[in-house]
Specification:
five-stranded parallel sheet; single chain; four-stranded parallel sheet; binds xanthosine-5'-monophosphate
């Protein structure tokens, strides 16, 4: 269904920055969509676009037939071809002038209106039926929970699975925000024993990930089955959809159905409710703010699904996991206190299952190593090590060694990506 009165479609002719350009134009209140260069005109016309912008990294006039199709469509067309070295800012200004002067758009994209529409859409889709949502406490699922709560209140049940690998105070935060503040029906499932028993003695990182992933699906599916809800909420956002389409599109250029339901069993057939599927990440955060979600949820660092499991090298034992959890809490606390939390993409502790010799209170110790890793990145594909102030690293080190039993040495990971990955496992 056509929602926005003005849509500008960016056609991807091989442009690395296309999402950034789309986002930057939206920021100036012109609603943008991205489509592959071979999208059929009928599909394009469903969006009733006010203008088309061809985006390519090279000046070369590749794909002349597709260019010709769009030029002949009668829809205003701008051809941005830019060398990547030029960056994308100049392109954005050109695109804005095109939207305003050639397409006569007024700039009507507005997140308040989006929110009203999203709420109305959810109500229309769901009627008086029940929706279940897997709530991780991450940004996307949290904002979906807040939208669904506004739209359908008690018809929503959120399932929050504690797999035992969460950071310190994370279960409490989620229960506080969603259970007590928002008064959402929240099923808190403490599956710690189930996960840690399965992980016992497993050292291989890939096997650990598989166990965590499979067990997670099993626990969630069991809970969801008890609720007997026909609808499943999903935190799919626009980049998830775009990243599932190669720039040539699928064979016929039609957006393939995507799903990040991630292996729920066949017998659990849900209809998906995906109220964020048109939004970029910063728009998701802005909507979350409008709905009253706290900064602790909206502005947190990205955190991997397998959680502390990929930051605990080797076999996970309860006591060593606890060492990691305590060390990680100190790193985060000092980062927040110093103002560096929001200047880094991810900063965290890693448990290294190596014992070294040290001294504590005049006595010889033989204890574990904690590593600290701090990186900045734009897209998590490459990453640079953050030069945290030495005083901050020093404070973290002293606190970890004095407050966390079982650790007598802290090291700083100075490896960029590549060759290192961001997580250690
Ligand atoms: P790597 O370690 O591959 O991480 O350099 C790149 C980014 O992805 C995050 N990451 C994950 N996120 N599930 C997730 O949701 C995962 O299994 C996973 N593994 C890594 C990582 O934190 C970093 O931001």
């Amino acid at each position: 269904m056509k929602k926005t009165p003005e849509t500008i479609v960016l056609l991807n002719f091989g442009c690395a920055d296309i999402q950034k350009i789309a986002r930057a134009i939206r920021n100036r209140r012109y609603y943008t969509m991205v489509m592959p260069r071979n999208v059929p005109l009928e599909r394009l016309r469903e969006e009733n676009p006010s203008g088309l912008i061809i985006c390519a990294d090279k000046q070369a006039q590749d794909f002349p037939d597709d260019r010709q199709r769009f030029a002949a469509s009668g829809i205003p067309l701008l051809q941005l071809t830019a060398e990547p070295a030029d960056g994308y800012a100049a392109n954005v200004e050109q695109a804005i002038a095109f939207c305003r002067d050639d397409c006569h758009c007024q700039g009507l994209w507005d997140l308040d209106k989006f929110l009203d529409e999203a709420v109305a859409d959810v109500r229309a889709q769901v009627g008086d039926q029940q929706v279940v949502l897997g709530l991780s406490g991450g940004v996307d699922s949290s904002v979906v929970a807040a939208i669904l709560n506004k739209a359908i209140g008690k018809q929503l049940t959120c399932v929050f699975v504690n797999h035992g690998l969460l950071r310190k105070n994370e279960p409490e935060l989620v229960q506080e925000v969603f259970g007590r503040n928002f008064q959402i029906n929240l099923r808190y499932v403490d599956a710690t024993d189930r996960f840690l028993d399965k992980l016992k003695g497993v050292k291989d990182p890939e096997i650990k990930r598989k166990i965590i992933g499979k067990e997670f699906i099993d626990v969630f599916a069991e809970e969801a089955a008890k609720l007997n809800a026909p609808f499943l909420g999903q935190g799919t956002i626009y980049p998830d959809i775009l990243e599932s389409i190669p720039f040539d599109g699928s064979k016929d250029g039609v957006i393939k159905s995507h799903h990040n339901v991630g292996g729920l069993p066949e017998n659990l057939k849900f209809q998906l409710v995906e109220p964020l599927e048109r939004l970029f990440k910063d728009e998701v955060r802005a909507v979350g703010r409008k709905l009253g979600l706290p900064s602790e949820i909206l502005d947190r660092h990205p955190f991997p699904g397998p959680s502390l499991g990929v930051r605990h090298v080797g076999a996970i034992e309860r006591d060593t996991l606890n060492i990691l959890r305590e060390a990680d809490a100190i790193v985060t606390e000092e980062l927040l206190k110093s103002g560096w939390y929001h200047k880094t993409w991810q900063t965290f502790a890693i448990f290294v299952p190596v014992k070294t010799v040290g001294m504590k209170n005049g006595k010889r110790t033989y204890d574990y190593v904690i590593a600290i890793r701090s990186i900045n990145t734009v897209d998590a594909v490459t990453a640079q090590v953050v030069h945290l102030p030495w005083e901050l690293i020093d404070t973290m080190t002293r606190r970890i060694i004095s407050e966390v039993d079982g650790v007598n040495r802290v090291v700083y990971d100075t490896t960029p990506k590549p060759p290192g990955t961001i997580e250690w496992e």
